[in-house]
Amino acid sequence: MSHFNRVDWVAGDPIMGLLEAFRADPNPAKLDLGVGVYKDQQGLTPIPKAVKLAEQALIGSEQTKSYIGGHGDVSFGTYLLHLVLGAHSPVIDDKRAGCTQTAGGTGALRLTGEFIAQCLPGKGIWLSQPTWPIHETLFQAAGLSISHYPYVGADNRLDVAGMLQAMRQIPRGDVILLHACCHNPTGFDLSRSDWQQVLDVVKERELLPLFDFAYQGFGDGLEEDAWAVRLFAQALPELLITSSCSKNFGLYRERTGGLIVIAENADRLLAVRSQLASIARNLWSTPPSHGAAVVAEILGSTSLRTVWQDEVEAMRNRIMSLRKGLVEALIPFGLNERFAHIAEQRGMFSYTGLTPEQVAALKERYSVYLVSSGRANVAGLDENRLDELARAIAEVSR
Ligand code: LMR
């Protein structure tokens, strides 16, 4: 008797699947623009210098490998709260904000999904169309009812009017997921006046906002990228924020992040946090230590923090220059206007506007890997190969 003979094969995650396909591709000229991972001039995903220095310090100072508790490393949580909400945030001073350490931003999202399902029954969740594909599967796995508001129009441009109109129809009290900056997958971010309008709708419909904040520092700056989150934190009694240290600290595989909760008062926060610790215990028990210890070491040291801030700035500037460089490389093919949005978008990703067929042709003919939606990880580009990529894009766009 086979216990497993009724288990069906299931297609793997499309983004991670691309990474495997890329690694298996023998073409030496292959180019990986799939998974959201930053690459340097050598095509490597470097460990930031600040991380290496922090790790060296930790080797000397670490005293134990005992558990770190349900909410994780306390100093990590405190530093992350200040990084996200600001050095002088009233909600932190009023003890209305808390951080629960999670296995990356994805772990924070899953914890949030379970919290909504178990503690806020009946609430649906609203996602942008399009959104990071894992938002769809992850909240579905948590048993939530998922709906969408439009974000990008048929012209592959931000559709603010359509978005606001749809948000005004959301059932009172539901949860709305917002991308704090560097929208994944499109790269189109809202302006400050757009955010004000979203806030008005959130208040009018009494929605519970959930900010996915996975790219702090990759858009316009560490402080600038937190602008919308801080606006909402000041204006609303309750808020959920999932923060990731994967990209800005380069800690991808260390799975480091946190779920930040802002509650109406300190007592409510304690109640919510008791539930989060209990849910987390059933998911992963207690979080891993290393990545959080590294982040705490960096943010707790003036000199390491400066090294890290400079490194984040360098990554952000390089991504911006790659965006501009690609659009310039498209000039000889008369495609610079059609793809001008690539230079205007923010963060790692660009919704290029390439069709699934064109994406497939790029992979088959040139070993250039993009997500089938047309999303390109701009942070995976090689500045010496922009002309070559522009030519390939021109070939498949004919
Ligand atoms: C991405 O969207 O490529 C990244 O967020 C990595 C991931 O986990 O999918």
From TrEMBL:
UniProt GO molecular function: transaminase activity
Residue intervals of the Aminotransferase class I/classII large domain: 30-393
Tagged with keyword Transferase: yes
Keyword Transmembrane: no
Cofactors named for this entry: pyridoxal 5'-phosphate
Keywords: Aminotransferase, Pyridoxal phosphate, Transferase
Pfam families named in the record: Aminotran_1_2
UniProt-listed PANTHER family: ASPARTATE AMINOTRANSFERASE (PTHR11879), ASPARTATE AMINOTRANSFERASE, MITOCHONDRIAL (PTHR11879:SF22)
Quaternary structure note: Homodimer.
Family: Belongs to the class-I pyridoxal-phosphate-dependent aminotransferase family.
Record-given protein name: Aromatic-amino-acid aminotransferase
Organism: Pseudomonas asuensis
